């Protein structure tokens, strides 16, 4: 049986970096344990989720910046150990997951983490703490993409261009659970199987020459109502061909420059938009949180975990997440 101490220790271990750079800038340090303020929750972190954006923030002048020194991480799972004033949704001792809304200098790669109450979700007993730390950003990104960016409705055709990664699989599960007709792509046998196993109607290997013709034949002449694009710098022009008239294309990921022919955007009256989870308005975050809680209660949320590392191995975790994987990589976790 887990015993929650009466008070958190004065200090804790945390991963921090004082300057931008390669994974080696990440250092394990001992720093003061934070205290929760009004509307905040102190969590004893058991597992922290490693997101690709964590490495982007650490390595470059990303559009989202945090003051340095900083501890990476937005996602975690653990137990509530202290409550700030006016917190009512959780209690001390509760098993919870953290889905960070905005980036901050005091992230989740630490033994303790202070989160806003609206970022903390009770974790049902049907989920392990490892699964809990794998849910936040991927599933909230999928929810925001499908509902706030694409204005999706049940019964529409949803094509996920790069469906085997963390956000892609979350989008497959979300779409299937909510009545969309889901198609996707992957680039490995493992990824193709993963997409099908999670309920997609059909999946295509985007490494194979001519795969677009297979997608068009399966979806039909009307095209996809919604496309979630994970690598826009490679695929965006292809999405114009696959989209329906007045289709919505949501750019979830993609780095680098590209040249596109805008003719089909005009001819089909396409909407091309992006998604930035950290810019969700409070009302939007509340809506997304409701969908997440529903998914936890009904059990359609099923994160894929690839590796669990000790907190001290954060450098290796970032090296791993920066390796090319063609999207089939599951969640990497740090055991805190």
Structural class: alpha/beta
* Helix/strand order, N-terminal first: EEEHEEEEHHEHEHEHEHEHEHEHE
Question: What value does the Rg take, in angstroms?
Answer: 20 Å
Q: Give the DSSP E fraction (strand runs of 2 or more residues).
A: 25-35%
- SS element count, helices: 10
Mean pLDDT reading: 94
- Name the overall outline: globular
Q: Kindly report how far apart the N and C termini lie.
A: 19 Å
Largest sheet: 7 strands, mixed
> Helical residue percent?
25-40%
Question: Unreliable stretches, pLDDT < 50, 5 or more residues?
Answer: none
The total of beta strands comes to 15
Q: How would you sum up this structure, described in words?
A:
By secondary structure, the protein is of the alpha/beta class. The protein is 29% helix and 27% strand. The protein is built from 10 helices and 15 strands. It has helices at 52-59, 129-132, 136-149, 166-177, 189-197, 211-219, 232-242, 263-268, 282-298, 314-321, and strands at 11-16, 27-32, 40-50, 75-83, 95-99, 112-116, 120-122, 157-161, 181-186, 202-205, 224-229, 243-251, 271-274, 305-310, 331-335. The strands form 3 sheets. Strands 3, 4, 5, 6, 7, 14 and 15 form a 7-stranded mixed beta sheet that branches. β8, α4 and β9 (181-186) form a beta-alpha-beta unit. α3 crosses α4 and α3 (136-149) crosses α9. The radius of gyration is 20 Å and the shape is globular. The model has no long low-confidence stretch (mean pLDDT 94).
């Amino acid at each position: 049986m887990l015993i929650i101490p009466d008070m958190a220790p004065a200090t804790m271990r945390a991963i921090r970096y004082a300057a931008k750079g390669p994974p080696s800038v990440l250092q394990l340090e001992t720093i003061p344990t934070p205290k929760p303020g009004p509307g905040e929750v102190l969590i004893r972190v058991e597992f922290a989720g490693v997101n690709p954006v964590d490495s982007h923030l650490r390595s470059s002048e990303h559009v989202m910046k945090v003051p340095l020194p900083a501890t990476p991480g937005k996602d975690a799972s653990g137990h509530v150990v202290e409550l700030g004033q006016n917190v009512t949704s959780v209690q001390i001792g509760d098993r919870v997951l953290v889905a960070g809304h905005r980036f901050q200098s005091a992230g989740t790669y630490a033994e303790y983490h202070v989160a806003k109450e609206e970022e903390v979700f009770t974790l049902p007993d049907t989920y392990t703490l490892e699964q809990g730390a794998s849910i936040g950003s991927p599933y909230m990104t999928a929810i925001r993409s499908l509902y706030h960016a694409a204005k999706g409705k049940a019964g529409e055709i949803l094509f996920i261009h790069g469906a085997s990664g963390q956000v892609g699989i979350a989008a497959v599960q979300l779409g299937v659970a909510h009545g969309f007709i889901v198609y996707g792509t992957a680039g490995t046998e493992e990824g193709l199987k993963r997409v099908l196993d999670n309920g997609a109607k059909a999946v295509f290997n985007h490494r194979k020459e001519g795969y677009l013709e297979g997608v068009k034949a399966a979806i039909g002449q009307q095209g996809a109502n919604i496309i979630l694009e994970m690598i826009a710098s490679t695929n965006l022009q292809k999405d114009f061909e696959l989209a329906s008239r007045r289709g919505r294309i949501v750019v979830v990921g993609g780095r680098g420059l590209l040249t596109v022919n805008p003719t089909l955007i005009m001819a089909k009256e396409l909407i091309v938009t992006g998604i930035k989870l950290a810019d969700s308005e409070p009302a939007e975050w509340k809506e997304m949180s409701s969908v997440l809680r529903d998914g936890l209660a009904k059990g359609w949320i099923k994160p894929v975990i690839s590796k669990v590392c000790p907190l001290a191995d954060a450098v290796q975790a970032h090296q791993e997440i920066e390796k090319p994987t063609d999207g089939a990589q599951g969640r990497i976790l740090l055991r805190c």
